[in-house]
Amino acid sequence: MYRNECEVGNSIKAFLASAANSSKLKREDIHFTSKLASNTNYKSARRSISQSVKESGLGFIDLFLLHSPYGGKQMRLESWKAVEDAIEAGEVKTGGVSNFGVKHLEELFASKPRIRPAVNQVEVHPFNTRAEITSFSQEHDIVVEAYAPLARALRMKHPKITSLSQKYSCTPAQLMIRWSLQHGFVPLPKSVTKSRIIANGEVEAFEIGDQDMKEMDGLDEYLVTDWDPVNTD
Questions:
Q1: 42 is catalytic
Q2: Of 66, 92, 156, 180, which cross-links 185 as Cys (Cβ 3.0–4.6 Å)?
Q3: Cα 105 → chain centroid
Q4: Model confidence pTM above 0.85
C-alpha cells in the first residue's frame, strides 16, 4: 500500500458529491493513481494491491505503479505479476512502474510479461533529462510521467530559465512544464497555491523553439532532487 488511499479516495468521493462538481463529473472521469510502496513476494504484493483498492473506496485504481526497482530481480518480477493479475481481475485498469532504469525495463521485457508497463514515472526536468531512460521508454510505447518537473524550484532563477521565461512571456514553471510536454512527457507539477496550480495548466499559448529546446536540454547536470533508484541492482 501507499498509505494514503483512504484519504485520497474520501476526498475524491466528497468532491464528486459536492456542489463544487459543477461539471457533474463521475468516478470514471477521475484518474486515480496509487503505488506498491515496496516490492515483495507475489502473495504479499497481490494482497497489498487489493487492500489499496478497498481502502480507496473507489472500486478500482486507474493506474497502479511499482514505486521503485528496489528489492531485487525476483521481487520486481513477482510484484509485476501481481499487478498483471490485478488488471485481469478488474481491480486495476493500467499498470506501470516508477524510477525504473533501462536495465530494469529490459529485465521485465525478458521475462515475457503478459502485460507490459504503460507508464514509467521518473524524475525528469531540464536539469536532469535522463535521456537514456526517456528514449528507451518512449521507443517501447511507455509513457514517461515526469515527476518533479520543476526541479522542486531549485533552478527557477537560473539565467537561462529566467531569460527564456521573459522571451516567451511565461513563468519559469510554465517554461519547464512546456519543455516537458514538447518532449512528449506527462509532467506532474505540484503546488499548494491555487493561482500557481491554475497557471501551471496554462501552457498552450506558446511553443518553445527548437534551438531553445536544445539549449534547455543542455542544462542537464543530473540534478536529483529526491531519491535516485534507477541504477539499483
A1: no
A2: 180
A3: 16
A4: yes
